[in-house]
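Working notes for the structural subgroup meeting. M.R. asked for a predicted model of this chain before we commit to crystallization trials. I am recording the input and output together here so anyone reviewing the notebook later can reproduce the run.

Input as submitted:
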Amino acid sequence: MPRGREGKARIEGDARRDVAERGRRSTAIRRYLQAAERRASDENEKDVVPESAPEPGA
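Returned structure, recorded in token form:
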């Protein structure tokens, strides 16, 4: 196990990398969820029947 300044620098470097990786991952997940939400919203809009359409069986 490293000791002194080298050990502390290594631990700090590892911690910075972990935080950076989590930040990238959370951004990617956020983008994915937003895209999925947008896609679902678009699909719902396509399913809406226009008001001018005649009702079935009329």
